[in-house]
Design a protein that fits this description.
Layout lengths: L1 H12 L5 H6 L1 H11 L8 E5 L5 H8 L3 E6 L17 H5 L3 E3 L14 E7 L10 H10 E12 L4 H8 L8 H6 L12 H10 L3 E8 L8 H16 L6 E7 L2
Parallel strand pairs: 1-2, 1-4, 2-3, 4-5
Antiparallel strand pairs: 5-7, 6-7
Helix pairs in contact: 1-4
C-alpha cells in the first residue's frame, strides 16, 4: 500500500521543484509511513506537524488518513529552487494547513481531535524548549492516539567523527548566519532525550530505536562511503543516523 501511494503521488510532482527531492527521499518517506501506519478506521484524523513541503501530508492521505497540516511557512516556495515550476502541494490537493510556530506550543485544534500526529524531522529545527510542542501533541491526541517522530541522532557515528576532526555537527556557519530561524538544525537529540520528552508530555513510549535511511542519487564514491558507514553502524547500532519513536496517549 505504501509503495503504491508513492507511485500515485510521483506523477503529480513531475517537472516541478518537488520532483528531485521526492525521488531522493522515497526511502525516508516509506520509513515514516510505516511508523505511523494505516488509519485505524475510516475518517481517522492525522496532523502532519512541520509539514512543508507537503509530501508526507499527501502520502498519508493516499493511505487513507484524513489529513491536516501545520507549518511555520506553509506558503513559502519550496527549496531547493531548481528552476522548475513551483507547486503549492497543500493547495493543489486540498489539504488544510495551519500557519503556526510549533515552538510556541499553541495549536489551533481542539482537545482530543486527532488519532495520530506525524512529527517528521522537525524537532531539530525548533528554537527553545521542545516540550510545549510535545505537550500540544498530547493534548490534541485522542486517548489511544499515537505520535510518530523521527529526528537526527546527535550521537551518530558521523557526528562523532566530525567532532574528532574539529568540525561542527550543525549547519555550516555561513548558512547559520544567512538563513532565517527554523531553516537550520538548532538542536539535535539523543534517543534517551526523545524518550524523556515524550514521557514528560504525558505520552507512553511504545517503541523507539535507531536507523539509517539514505537518500538516492549519490555519486559512486559517496555510495561506497555510505556502505562502509552502514556496515560500521550495523556492528555498532548507537552510531546510526536517525532516531525514531512511537508513543501513545493513555
Amino acid at each position: 500500500m505504501i509503495e503504491e501511494a508513492l507511485n500515485r503521488l510521483a506523477p503529480a510532482l513531475k517537472n516541478t521543484q518537488h520532483e528531485a527531492f521526492f525521488a531522493g527521499n522515497r526511502k525516508r518517506y516509506m520509513f515514516a509511513l510505516r511508523l505511523i501506519g494505516a488509519p485505524p478506521s475510516p475518517g481517522s484524523r492525522l496532523l502532519d506537524a512541520g509539514a512543508s513541503p507537503g509530501h508526507l501530508s499527501a502520502l498519508c492521505r493516499e493511505i487513507g488518513w484524513d489529513v491536516s497540516a501545520a507549518d511555520r511557512h506553509p506558503g513559502e516556495q519550496f527549496p531547493p529552487k531548481t528552476g522548475a515550476p513551483p507547486l503549492d502541494l497543500f493547495s493543489s490537493i486540498g489539504i488544510p494547513v495551519a500557519e503556526v510556530d510549533l515552538a510556541q506550543g499553541s495549536l489551533p485544534f481542539a482537545d482530543a481531535s486527532f488519532d495520530a500526529v506525524l512529527f517528521n524531522e522537525t524537532l531539530e529545527h525548533l528554537i527553545g524548549s521542545p516540550l510545549p510542542a510535545m505537550k500540544e501533541f498530547a493534548r490534541i491526541l485522542k486517548p489511544g492516539g499515537r505520535l510518530a517522530l523521527t529526528t537526527p541522532n546527535v550521537a551518530s557515528l558521523r557526528n562523532r567523527l566530525s567532532f574528532l576532526f574539529g568540525r561542527n555537527i550543525y549547519t555550516a556557519l555561513d548558512v547559520a548566519i544567512n538563513v532565517r530561524p527554523y531553516k537550520c538544525h538548532n538542536r539535535e537529540y539523543t534517543l534517551n532525550e526523545v524518550r524523556e520528552l515524550a514521557e514528560r508530555a504525558g505520552l507512553k513510549v511504545e517503541r523507539a530505536g535507531l536507523a539509517n535511511i539514505g537518500q538516492a542519487g549519490l555519486s559512486p564514491l559517496k555510495s561506497a562511503l555510505r556502505s562502509v558507514y552502514y556496515c560500521a553502524t550495523y556492528l555498532w547500532p548507537p552510531g546510526r543516523s536517525l532516531l525514531f519513536l512511537v508513543a501513545s496517549k493513555p
